[in-house]
Model the fold of this input.
Amino acid sequence: MSERTNLLVHSVPPHALTRLAREWLLEDAPSFDPAGVCVGSEEVEARLLCKTPHTVLAGSPFFTAVFTEVGCTVHWMYQEGAHLGPDEVTLTAVVRGPARCLLLGERPALNCLARASGIASRCAQLRAKAEAAGWGGEVAGTRKTTPGFRLVEKYAMLVGGASMHRQDLSGMVMLKDNHIWASGSITEAVRAARSVCGFSSKLEVECRSTEEAREAAAAGADIVMLDNLQPPELQVAAQTLKEEFPTLQIEASGGVTPENLTSYFSPHVDVVSLGCITQGCPVADFSLKVQKPRTNKPTSKVAEQQ
Done:
């Protein structure tokens, strides 16, 4: 685990963690919690178990924030970004607090950790393929994220070693096919967008051919996305564009999967983005098990006599 991964936990502002934790808890318990009557507020201990071997742990700041909000504490056995396993079950953390409060936080916290760790694990696998192939570009996610959960999912990409891409519409200007059609041309769309974003934002244009990419670069685009080009066509287009526009960044996207990812690698391609980093990504299996309190059995008279 790198020093960079350790530092990532400091990238999410405390107020953002608190806001999300409160929203998730409110969603799950907007009024009464009848089951809380059954367990009361006795102090209990619960063990967080990871049951998916080779999982990359991600989302611990969000998990902790949920339990902090309900008055519980979390002691982690592993740091963020750790590879859990290879055992079938790995004790990952211990949560302590009032029983009813611990159970209030259980599901929101597990949902977050399972989703984030699943995404980080996939990103780590994709990043490993890039390193094995000797490709020096960036594997990136997209904005195809779960509504209301983008911060968690983008953070998980970083933990797994992938690029977040832009975080939202203001993070970078990206002109897609609908922007182009509505504007009339690539050149006009780039001109209009540049007049607003100025020098402080990069501008990317989605292109379906070398000709479109050439127009975008000539108009002043910083990045062109070669969208839905087959790998052989992509390789030729990327090389041609780099020869004509040496400082142009080139992103490959559309139809990329974990299985065919390596076919998109090229010394002329800077970024390969995949929607499947978040869409259809398997989650990691975590569970939280409350431990039964230890009771001291009374010593029998027979035992005392012995």
Summary: The chain is about 40% helix and 20% strand. Residues 99-132 form the longest helix (34 residues). The longest strand covers residues 90-98. The radius of gyration is 25 Å.
